[in-house]
Amino acid sequence: MIYSQISQYYNKWSSGNKYYVASGKFYIEEALKHNSTIVELGVGTGRIAGEILKKSMNKVIGVDNCEEMLKQTEKQIKKEYADRLMLLKQDFRELKLPFKCEYIYMPFRTFGHLENNEDRTRTLKAVKKNLLSGGVFIFDHYVLDQGWAQKVSNEQVLMYEDSDIRITDEYSFDFNNKKMHCIVRCNDVIFESFEFYWFDVKSIFKIIKEVGFKVKNLYGDFNRSEYTNKSVNQIWVLEN
Asked: Left (φ > 0), alpha (ψ -120 to 50) or beta: where does 44 sit?
């Protein structure tokens, strides 16, 4: 399972992404607009869910398909917020919440783990079934910078380093199939090796429309700037 090995270092590894802080801040702010149960798909180590629990009285349902990541969430925040945090091990494509909710989000490019349009369609349909009428679903992904991709391809990119550990990424790209292969090394030992996928705005908008969501906003960055053809992120705010 992806992230099983890196789970103990996930926050350190992820902090090497330039949007790590900004994306977390964005999703926390969006969640605090709601006074109801919040659902995070891809809860990971609970870094965002924990802040929502700390800053509100909302209940949170955290969903992930990686047992080791859920164990990290339990270790880091479950004890403190046991009465307001529910953790579920599920496949997003077959999402089944205990009740319909007002707000669901999938942060930090988690949508990129969905391999193809069939998986994206299934996931959006599953989310829609679990949202209340008028409910909101937010997810994001990058807009691939092909120049950057060509520059870093097959190079080791430093993500995190301290006196104990050095974490690097190595990427290779299949531009025709919109697929990236990522190798994560900790102290030069391979911890993870997985595929990651990207898509353009037109193709995902077509799926969103077919599933029946209304697009409330499409941002080009986590500061909520309008999406343009120069944007490096695509942040979708959908209404059921």
From this structure: left
Token pair, residue 137, equals 């679903």
173 in Cβ contact with 198 (< 8 Å)? no
Strand-pair category, 131-142 with 101-106: parallel
Looking at the fold, whether 153 and 109 belong to one and the same domain comes out as: no
Q: What 3-state class would DSSP assign to 106?
A: strand
Q: Phi and psi for 76 in degrees, rounded to 5?
A: -90, -35
Residue 1 lies in a domain: no
| pLDDT single digits (tens) 207-236 | 999 999 999 999 999 999 999 999 999 999
> Among 147, 145, 173, which Cα is nearest to 232's?
145
Residues 6+ away with beta carbon under 8 Å from 210: 121
Q: How far apart are CA 15 and CA 154, in angstroms?
A: 21
Rounded to the nearest 10°, the torsion over CA 169, 115, 66, 48 is 70
Task: Indicate whether 2 belongs to any domain.
Answer: no
| DSSP helix/strand/coil, 237 | strand
Grade residue 118 by pLDDT with cuts at 50, 70 and 90: very high
Is residue 179 one of the residues assigned to a domain?
yes
d(CA 61, CA 38): 6
pLDDT per residue over 143-180, tens digit each?
Answer: 999 999 999 999 999 999 999 999 999 999 999 999 99
Its domain, for residue 178, covers 146-196
